[in-house]
Amino acid sequence: MNQETMSKKASVIIPLYNAEKYIKTTLQSILDQTYKNLEVIIVDDESPDNSVAVCQQFTDSRVKIVHQKNRGLAGSRNTGIRHVEGEYIAFMDADDIWLPEKLEKHINHLERNPEIGVSFSRSAFIDEQDKPLGIYQITKLQDITPLDILCRSPIGNGSAAVFKKAVFEDIKFHDNLYGYVEDYYFDDTFALSEDIECWLRIALTTNWKFAGLAQPLTLYRVHSQGLSTNLKVMLDTREKLFEKTSSYAPEGMASWIKPARAYHQRYVARRAVTINKGFLALKLMCRSIWNYWRIIIEDFQRTFETIAAAILLCIVPQPLYDKVKSVALKIVGSFQQKSIDKDKLREAS
After folding, report:
1. In terms of Cα–Cα distance, which of 226, 195, 189 is closest to 96?
2. Within a 10 A sphere around the Cβ of 35, how many other Cβ atoms?
3. Which value, to the nearest 10 degrees, does the dihedral of the CA atoms of residues 323, 328, 330, 333 take?
4. How far is residue 216's CA from residue 344's CA, in Å, rounded to a whole number?
5. How many helices (H) and strands (E) does the chain have?
6. Is there a smaller number of Cβ atoms within 10 Å at the N or the C end of the chain?
7. Which of 224, 127, 227, 209 is nearest to 161 (CA)?
8. Residue of 327, 300, 299 lying closest to 312 (CA atoms)
9. How far apart are CA 195 and CA 189, in angstroms?
10. What is the tens place of the pLDDT at every residue in 188-209?
11. What is the pLDDT of residue 341?
12. Residue 265 contacts residue 235 (beta carbons within 8 Å)
């Protein structure tokens, strides 16, 4: 990496709310990055626990804490963007971890490709004790389309991507949601799907391209708190997203709505499986296939896995289901690792 690139600052934004248990590890993983020219903007969203006190223990001058009245995840990210000094912007969920070379690899990727505005990586799943689960988010890396973002967002999670600041300048809008006019980038009115809404707006209203790196540079934490989301709210919020996108891209959404709805219903079905709601998962899968039966052909493996898991949950005792699930995850993880290795070789060539 040349000196000119190293002189460009990266701004990492961490929305902070009830993350006392994990924030120390998360923050340390950012400060340990091989790319040292960075700032960390922690946005305290009126966190009721001791998260802020944990952050205040860090004496690194690169760490800044911004306080705000509770605005949620989208509002915290917007506040962070308003405070950045860097030419690159990354978001970090307060319970995830980055591998040390993540920022450096993404910034190299962005510098080598002027047309790319969003560089993302794959992610590896970890548990509440930082233990690898042996499975990964395997996403499409190239030629990303709006339909890809709607159906199976390649970015995968909020800690996976690094952006050129210019991307957010290009989608900035003004609004008065809290008694005064501010710049907005994410839509504060979305409690869920705020990331997909933003990525989709980038894809549809700018010329910036999305592209990914094969290596899983983000460690994405799976824990019980993250599984309690109201599944109906997830479905309703996505319908709100479809409605908003239709207002400025009506022709595109008219052709994308059926697959987009089906893939999201399958995603929510997988969440239902995770919290052991087998009958609900089956119901959602029936709706998914009814909406867009081609999902069976286009993504047979994940569709079959979801249906099989839902059926097993309904007919076998929980201890047996857990054993079958454990074996299945090991098999899936093995295939995923081979896929990652193959993509890394292709990327290096």
Report:
1. 226
2. 22
3. -150
4. 10
5. 14, 11
6. C
7. 209
8. 327
9. 12
10. 999 889 999 999 999 999 999 9
11. 85
12. yes
